[in-house]
Structure formats: structure tokens, C-alpha cells
Specification:
seven-stranded parallel beta sheet, Rossmann fold, alpha/beta, single chain, globular, 191 residues
């Protein structure tokens, strides 16, 4: 099976977890990675620059109507929901927060499931709320892969535990196991 998108949701503690994953992915990683990290509304937020400094893959903020490209890590901008459109471009909305969050993990994951169906991979990392539960359920309904960070390793266990309690998850991984899985998935999707 070729997978065409990886969506990652994280909240408290996410910068460390995402940074670790990106630091250990190879430069030839081609599956697009789209990240919602709950973040401040501060325009001086340096999330993309911090992640780029750790990553061999290009990291950038997702832009309105931007076409999703292989080999790029896209980060949801602060204070906007990030959605994937049928033509595989991004759209940004300032609709009401979902579970107190904008950007919302659920909004991104649900749109990824709708567009990429069984070729999507959803990953929930550390965090302090239950954003991502409904989005991961949407990916599971479309026969995509659902992954949760091992709660014992997560800096904040609430988000992984909420996803585990509500969904039949395919994999529970430490960050090292997740990195190895993603590298293998990328090879099989390109082979």
C-alpha cells in the first residue's frame, strides 16, 4: 500500500516530540507530513524555524491554496484551522475553535481522511486535551492507519490516553518506534 499523507497532532510537549521525529527522518523522505501543533497566536512564534533547524526535510508554514508537495513538512499557522481540499491544496479558516483549539487537530485529520481515505496516516502525540480523538476516528473509518504515542513516554499523557480510550488504534509507539515505522512506510510507498 502506498500512503500519501501523514498528519500529526500535538499539544503540550509536542515541540520536543515533533523535533525528535524530524531530526531522525532521512532527507529523502517523500510522504508529505502535515502538523497541527497547538501554539500561541504570537506572530513572532518561531515554530517552523525551530523545527527546520532539526530537520533534513523542508519545513514550512502551510499557506492558503498551496498545493501539497512530497518531501515537505507543513505546519498549521497560528490561530487558523488547516484543512485539505479535494484538489490537495490547503485552505485556512478562522472558524470557531474546536475543543478550545485553533488550529484543531480534528479539523485537519477529518479533512485528510475525506481526501486521502485509506492512504492517510494519523498520529497523535503528547498533549493535554482530547483534540484528535474525532479526527483519528475519521481516519480509522476510511481504513487509514491510526497511531498514538506511547502514553508512558509522552510528556503529557492526556491526548494519547483519550485517543486510546475512544478508538481502536493500530499502533502504540515510542518516538523511536514511530520514526522506524515512518522510514519503513516511506520506503514501501516509494518502492
Amino acid at each position: 500500500m502506498r500512503y500519501e499523507v501523514i498528519v500529526i497532532g500535538a499539544s503540550a510537549g509536542g515541540l520536543t516530540a515533533i523535533g525528535y521525529l524530524l531530526e531522525h527522518l532521512p532527507a529523502d523522505f517523500t510522504i508529505p507530513i502535515i502538523v497541527v501543533q497547538h501554539r500561541s497566536k504570537d506572530p513572532k512564534d518561531l515554530l517552523e524555524e525551530l523545527l527546520q533547524s532539526k530537520s533534513k526535510i523542508k519545513v514550512k508554514q502551510a499557506d492558503e491554496k498551496e498545493k501539497i508537495q512530497p518531501g515537505v513538512v507543513y505546519i498549521a499557522p497560528p490561530d487558523y484551522h488547516l484543512l485539505i481540499e479535494r484538489d490537495r491544496t490547503f485552505s485556512l479558516t478562522s472558524d470557531e475553535p474546536v475543543r478550545f483549539s485553533r488550529p484543531s487537530i480534528d479539523v485537519l485529520f477529518e479533512s485528510a481522511a475525506e481526501v486521502y481515505r485509506n492512504k492517510s496516516v494519523g498520529i497523535i502525540l503528547t498533549g493535554a486535551n482530547n483534540d484528535g480523538v474525532a479526527g483519528l476516528a475519521a481516519i480509522i473509518r476510511e481504513d487509514g492507519i491510526a497511531i498514538v504515542q506511547n502514553p508512558e513516554e509522552a510528556e503529557i499523557q492526556v491526548m494519547p490516553l483519550a485517543s486510546l480510550a475512544a478508538n481502536k488504534i493500530h499502533h502504540i509507539f515510542t518516538l523511536d518506534q514511530l520514526r522506524a515505522f515512518l522510514v519503513k512506510l516511506n520506503k514501501s510507498s516509494n518502492g
